[in-house]
Amino acid sequence: MGGFVGYGTVRNDYVMLKGSVSGPRRRVMTLRRPMAPQTSRQLKEKIVLKFIDTSSKIGHGRFQTKKEKNQWFGPLKKDRIRREERLRKERAARAVERKAKTAKK
Question: Fewer CB atoms near the end CB (10 Å): N or C, the chain?
């Protein structure tokens, strides 16, 4: 729902880094193998990723998915307007089909 602050929603493959990266937002980084083997216990620890929070980090982000948000708020006015517009177009298309059928007879 929210994406990353200053970056937005991630739509492609990405690498998640532990910790922070100095510099400007969206900085291009080069990843390489370490020159010396990692020997500290913390760096050798196996990472178990349990959950990635996708709620907005700007404001009061509460929802992980659009479905969860819609379930909480229920039908909105804009959804009702879209549905009515779609039904109006379908009715108009059916009326055109009926006129075409009666014109053939």
Answer: C
Least Cα distance to 52 among 78, 14, 26, 85 occurs for 14
- Give pLDDT tens digits for 63-77: 888 888 889 999 899
Cα 75 to Cα 23: distance, rounded to the nearest angstrom: 43
Structural domain harbouring 86 = 76-105
Whether residue 62 sits in one domain with residue 41: yes
Bridge partners, residue 8, by sequence: 4
Number of domains within the chain = 2
Nearest residue to 5 via CA among 20, 22, 26: 26
pLDDT tens digits along 34-66:
898 888 888 888 888 888 777 777 777 888 888
Residues 90 and 39 grouped into a single domain:
no
